[in-house]
Amino acid sequence: MLKEYYDKLPPILKNKFILVTLILIVWVAFFDSNNWIKQAKLKSEIEDLKEQKNYYQDEIEKDSVALFDLTNNQETQEKFAREKYLMKKENEDVIVIIDSDE
């Protein structure tokens, strides 16, 4: 019974070295713990993480510049205090307008 199937195989698959090589390639491609599919997914995840890293480095740089400006520039400090904490000078009045729609 097996002899019939063996005779039907192409001659290239009858070579034991080629057969073992094909089995090894299939094993590495699909069944191994570090298979090619998993490696492709990990590679795309690494690319996504690199993009996130670049984004956050840019944001850190922007925030560092803003922090330096806030700590060293008097006008920026005043603007921040007025907008964020509704602070005012001694001779000023602050009027807060709240929309009734909100």
Architecture blueprint of SSEs:
Layout: H1 2-8, H2 11-14, H3 16-31, H4 36-72, H5 74-85
Essential attributes:
102 residues, mainly alpha, 5 helices
Written description of the protein model:
The chain is an all-alpha fold. It has two domains: about 30 residues; about 50 residues. It is about 75% helix and about 0% strand. Helix 4 packs across helix 5. The N and C termini lie far apart (about 80 Å).
- The pLDDT mean sits at 87
Q: State the secondary-structure class.
A: mainly alpha
Level of helix content?
over 70%
Query: What's the SSE pattern?
Result: HHHHH
Q: Which oligomerization state do the chains in this entry correspond to?
A: single chain
Straight-line N-to-C gap: 82 Å
- The general outline is rod-shaped
Which parts are unreliable, with pLDDT below 50 for 5 consecutive residues or more? Answer: none
Beta strands, count:
0
Instruction: Characterize the main sheet.
Output: none
Count of discrete structural domains? 2
Q: Helical segment tally?
A: 5
Q: Strand percentage, roughly?
A: under 5%
Radius of gyration of CA atoms, rounded to a whole number: 34 Å
